[in-house]
Amino acid sequence: MNRSPEGLDQSPYRTIWTLSWPQILMMVFNFLIGFVDVWTAGRINREVQASLGLITQSLFFFLIVATAVANAGVAAIGQSLGAGRELRARRYVGLCILLALVMGGLLMLLGLPLKSLLLSALQVPDSIRPVTEYFLWVYLLLLPSYSLLIVLNAVFRARKQVFFPLYSMAVVTILNTVGDLGLGLGWWGLPELGYQGLAWATFWSVTLGAAANVAALWKEGLLARATFAPWRWVRRALPYLYKVSWPSVVMQVVWHSGYLVLYAITAALPRDNVASLAGMSAGIRVESLLFLPAFAFNMTAGILVGHSLGAGRFEEARSYGYRILVIGLVCIVAVSLVVWQFLEPLAAFLAPDPAVQREAVNYLFWNLLAIPFTLTTMILAGAFNGAGATHFNMVIMGLATWCLRLPLAYVLGHLVMGRASGIWISMLASQAAQSLVMLYVYAFKDWSCHGMIKHKHCKKEAAHAPRI
């Protein structure tokens, strides 16, 4: 039998649901944050909406190190707890916190003087460059807090304390909504600051959400001196974090830089480039509604696979991935069928401009078809993260993005069709190819060998963990 976060015996499917539903609700809050941002930006003007889409993607690029540390933390902490090594798990918590703060601060300091170069690399149209530059400046200042928020959410998930990330994201959602509507549009008698209000609403909501997580750490006794290990332990612990995180960093760089190039390809379209950018931004927000259960199941796969591998139950770890994939596919098909009926009203709600509405619907048509493939990739990637086998994600997603999606997007979008539909078709094709390869690797490769504990059938020695 399996143990729930509260320690009660549960069936596998009950365990999956117990961990997943708070994370689905947490992802609803994530969706609402982006939805309100885009809705408010559209009420200001389409230039602000297009700028927001570009810089939101750029922010994800700057957060790749924090995401990599979070993935490594889930693997290390989850496997340590599965093996009954509570002190080792606690020390990995402290190490992940320090890495988040240091790397977030360094990226902020590096990014601020290079922001003009980034805007040029993105081929930002002159009509939206001043707005885009302001968003970028504020979001760079946010990097330390945002990195801490991401890593602490992962720390709590790895410990099966899934309600703390839920609470922190509720704080971020409420504060961001009040800030967007109040400072962006001037509601409730607050000063109407337009796009500047949107930027600072994000800054303060994320910062206070990170503070809520720190308060939860203190409540759980995880800010005690024992959490922060001496250097001799850190030297032994870092290799496993490095082993898991560097492929994740490369994968995130490849993935998000691929999205930035995709934005650049869209921005350089021979016609309707601004409407296509804004439509893509609006479409992504609607599409993210379908990713809510997908992200939750991705995180649940990482948790359960990590704990099972740490306990030495290798076949159980593999079976959890399959179970979660089946549940996820059923959920996502049901939600997709509902959303499909409301594409035009949703696009109109997010984008008042008719040209932007048309492009948002066009984007969603092709990307809804890709949802089952996308879900398969996300859930199996979560399982690989929990096992520490992040290099599979790096290779498969990297090749699909740079060897298929981007070349096809340019050929179809610029040379064959001359419009954004060619770019959207390339996204569908790459997701289909990527998911099939991921499924093959999960089914036939022994990815469990990359955990802290050596599988008896592994040909190579698994990475050694610190003894404490």
Descriptive notes:
- The chain is mainly alpha-helical and 468 residues long.
- The protein has 17 helices and two strands.
- Strand 1 (2-3) and strand 2 form a beta hairpin.
- Helix 2 packs antiparallel against helix 10 (231-267).
- The chain is globular.
Number of helical runs? 17
Strand order of the largest sheet: 1-2
Structural class: mainly alpha
> Uncertain segments of ≥5 residues (pLDDT<50)?
1-9
Mean pLDDT: 85
Give the proportion of residues in helices.
over 70%
Rg of Cα set: 22 Å
What would you call the shape? globular
Order of helices and strands: EEHHHHHHHHHHHHHHHHH
Please indicate the percent range of residues in DSSP E strands (runs of 2 or more).
Answer: under 5%
SS elements, strand count: 2
Largest sheet, described in full? 2 strands, antiparallel
Distance between the termini: 27 Å
Give me the secondary-structure topology.
Elements: E1 2-3, E2 9-10, H1 12-44, H2 46-62, H3 64-82, H4 86-111, H5 115-121, H6 129-141, H7 143-158, H8 163-185, H9 195-219, H10 231-267, H11 273-310, H12 314-340, H13 343-350, H14 354-369, H15 371-387, H16 390-416, H17 421-444
Antiparallel strand pairs: 1-2
Helix pairs in contact: 1-2, 1-8, 1-11, 2-6, 2-10, 2-11, 3-4, 3-7, 3-10, 3-11, 4-7, 6-9, 7-8, 7-9, 8-9, 10-16, 11-12, 11-13, 11-14, 11-15, 12-15, 13-14, 14-17, 15-17, 16-17
Concise summary:
Helices cover about 80% and strands about 0% of the residues. It has helices at about 10-45, 45-60, 65-80, 85-110, 115-120, 130-140, 145-160, 165-185, 195-220, 230-265, 275-310, 315-340, 345-350, 355-370, 370-385, 390-415, 420-445; strands spanning about 1-5, 10.
